[in-house]
Write a structure and sequence with these properties.
single chain; alpha+beta; four-stranded antiparallel beta sheet; 10 helices; 10 strands; 17% strand; disordered C terminus
């Protein structure tokens, strides 16, 4: 069962939501985790599932970790009852609580202290001690609000990027032009804060917009046109590169609710939200 919770209002520009997930499988279950640009701080409260690594081997996840922007779908094997709590940041959100370069955290689980310093260790410890999801929401709000007040080194850069990005609707070249910098300078600045190249960010934005339309039953040709792909073949190539599936197969999996818990139940795409003042 998937549940989501709103963060404190002062955190909403940086935190999309908190969420919990509980699974008690009768048999081993496989879940595909679709990629996006939103980092997530995940804490396992019970058994730890297995994840398929790049070498094709099943390895247990860490007890707690930050997983940043990802390029491809991940496959999770749930063999025992699972319970976890997660903090879902907006793509730029982690940078408000850490001065580390997000580009160094791409596509890998990052230990709590390495990703968020002392705040990461405190989140892991106190979230695991809390006895309910509501208590964990209160813990996360309190610790993240404290971190928000004490971490401001990246705020000026963050505000510039958010204004230029226009909610993810601009191309990399357009964003660089808004800041009056070269494409290379903009990409370096963006990578430090978001961790994923601007071009990849736009691809993931289109991908999630396409998923929403595909799930609603829209024609694939219309999806391609409305989501900014050059044509249906272009959309098919990009979706297959991310999920390993062509759009027609992806539609069937969405229809069978393969992604129900970890995609379809979630709130809107992570770049849709209020900006910091």
């Amino acid at each position: 069962m998937y549940r989501s919770f709103d963060p404190h209002q002062e955190l909403s520009a940086f935190i999309e939501c908190y969420w919990s997930w509980r699974v008690d499988p009768d048999v081993d279950a496989l879940d595909d985790i679709l990629p996006d640009a939103a980092p997530e701080f995940i804490v396992h409260m019970g058994s730890i599932p297995f994840i398929l690594n790049a070498s094709g081997e099943w390895r247990r996840q860490h007890r707690a970790f930050l997983y940043c922007a990802a390029h491809k779908a991940l496959r999770l094997s749930v063999r025992e009852p699972l319970m976890l709590f997660a903090i879902r940041f907006r793509p730029w959100g982690v940078g408000r609580f850490s001065n580390a370069s997000m580009a160094n955290m791409l596509d890998r689980p990052v230990p709590p202290f390495e990703s968020l310093n002392k705040l990461g260790d405190e989140l892991e410890k106190e979230l695991r001690l809390a006895e309910s999801d509501i208590s964990r929401v209160k813990v996360a709000d309190r610790l993240l609000l404290d971190g928000l007040k004490s971490s401001s080194a990246i705020a000026p850069r963050l505000k510039l990027l958010l204004n230029a990005a226009n909610g993810g609707r601009c191309s990399s070249a357009e964003m660089a032009q808004k800041l009056s910098v070269s494409d290379r300078t903009f990409s370096r600045l963006w990578n430090d804060v978001v961790g994923i190249q601007p071009r990849k960010f736009v691809q993931l934005m289109r991908f999630h917009n396409a998923l929403e339309m595909i799930d609603r039953g829209a024609k694939l040709s219309q999806v391609a046109a409305d989501c900014g792909y050059s044509d249906q073949a272009h959309m098919a190539r990009q979706i297959k590169a991310i999920t390993g599936l062509p759009p027609s197969s992806l539609r069937r999996r969405l229809g069978n609710r393969v992604y129900q818990d970890l995609y379809l139940s979630r709130p809107g795409a992570p770049w849709r939200g209020s900006e910091p003042a």
